[in-house]
Design goal:
alpha/beta; 2 domains; Peroxisomal Thiolase, Chain A, domain 1; nine-stranded mixed sheet
């Protein structure tokens, strides 16, 4: 939908880490990110009257608000997986437009010991799971199947997927919060161990701890804080796209349903940078294709013909994305919103996109055998 009168004015992000022993609590991460976001916006704790929280909460949401020492007029906690950043922003925008609250912080966090062991069954509850009987039961194997099919049908090569991983690692070099900042070569990518053929190590995200937050407010309040507000231009979501089809052989993701609404007030050609959920390289490809950046099946050609680094002609995940920063639970979707705001405020030291005014953020949630990605959400932000 088209938006008016809703702005982003600040952001905060902790370092992403993979602790094996002691680690900070979930609430400690929340508090750190919230304070950073308020400081960046030029606001105080007393200004905060609305809060959206994403993450695996250790206690009920009102109790967490009490632990944070907040008194609020609006609160939400939704389960939208990786789409949480955009979905929470959409709900906060509704509350601001309706006058329920003037200043909202949206925050996501993860705080847990990181294990290399299996995380349990995946999707075993779904009514149409065609792969579970063959031993496939997790996101690695699931996205390996999708990637293999795309390679076989459309000629996508490992060198092309490798270019994405290498470009995002280059983008992460100057992001002090990223887990992985050292350069990645094509030789290292191609020789990395196979996780689930054809998925390699650098095709997959690393789970981690951390938090990210952003501040949203009314246009009137934003103009009191800055001469260059960042506006929410348009936003949309689709849940369980084509759920009635119920076929295993489908390459659609739900993002195909978004462009008409998403680009109703801003053309795709106006986008200066793209912040897109990249828990797997194939997830990023599905979103870029669904949103219309290239024709179906043409991912390889698109990758070959564009420079995906922050100073290239198609800046993609300019802070390194999840593939370089890590995935702190639902915060994985939040970090893309934070990076877009950082870029539009001109504060991306070392990896700033020159003249960036318009950013697209795209995030999916909850991969599903039935629907490929059963939560698709995207929004466009613009500095004015």
């Amino acid at each position: 939908m088209q938006r008016a009168g809703v702005c982003f004015v600040g952001y905060g992000e902790t370092k992403y880490t993979r602790p094996k022993g002691k680690y900070k609590s979930f609430v400690a991460y929340l508090a750190e990110a919230i304070k950073m976001a308020l400081d960046n916006a030029g606001l105080k704790k007393k200004d905060l009257k609305g809060l959206a929280i994403a993450g695996f909460l250790p206690q009920n949401t009102p109790s967490i608000v009490e632990w944070l020492g907040l008194e609020l007029d609006w609160l939400q906690q939704l389960d939208s997986g990786g789409a949480a950043g955009v979905v929470d922003a959409r709900r906060a925008a509704d509350a601001i437009q309706l006058g329920h609250v003037d200043v909202v912080v949206c925050v996501g966090a993860a705080a847990r010991a990181i294990s290399s062991g299996p995380s349990g069954a995946f999707e075993s509850y779904q009514k149409n799971n065609w792969v579970l009987p063959y031993g496939f039961g997790g996101p690695n194997s699931y996205f390996a199947l999708i990637l293999r099919r795309y390679m076989e049908d459309n000629g996508l090569t490992a060198e092309q997927t490798g270019k994405i991983a290498i470009s995002l690692r280059e983008n992460a070099e100057f992001n002090e919060n990223a887990l992985f900042r050292s350069p990645l070569t094509m030789e290292e990518y191609l020789n990395s161990r196979i996780i689930c053929d054809p998925l390699r190590l650098y095709d997959c995200v690393a789970p981690c701890n951390g938090a990210a937050a952003f501040v949203m407010t009314s246009e009137k309040k934003a103009k009191e804080l800055t001469d260059h507000p960042i506006y929410l231009v348009s936003d949309c979501e689709k849940i369980n796209y084509q759920i009635d089809t119920n076929i295993a052989d489908r390459g659609t993701s739900g993002f195909e349903a978004l462009p008409e609404k998403l680009f109703s007030n801003c053309k795709i050609e106006e986008i200066d940078l793209v912040a897109i959920y990249d828990a797997y390289i194939m997830v990023a490809i599905l979103q870029l294709e669904g949103l219309g950046f290239f024709e179906q099946g043409k991912a390889g050609e698109f990758i070959d013909s564009h420079d995906l680094t922050y100073n290239g002609d198609f800046p993609l995940n300019t802070g390194g994305g999840e593939l370089s920063c890590g995935q702190a639970g639902p915060t994985g979707g939040y970090l893309h919103v934070v990076e877009a705001i950082r870029q539009l405020k001109g504060e991306a030291k070392g990896h700033q996109v020159k003249g960036a005014k318009t950013a697209l953020i795209s995030t999916p949630g909850m991969p599903s055998i039935d629907t490929t990605l059963n939560y698709a959400a995207a929004m466009i932000l613009q500095r004015r």
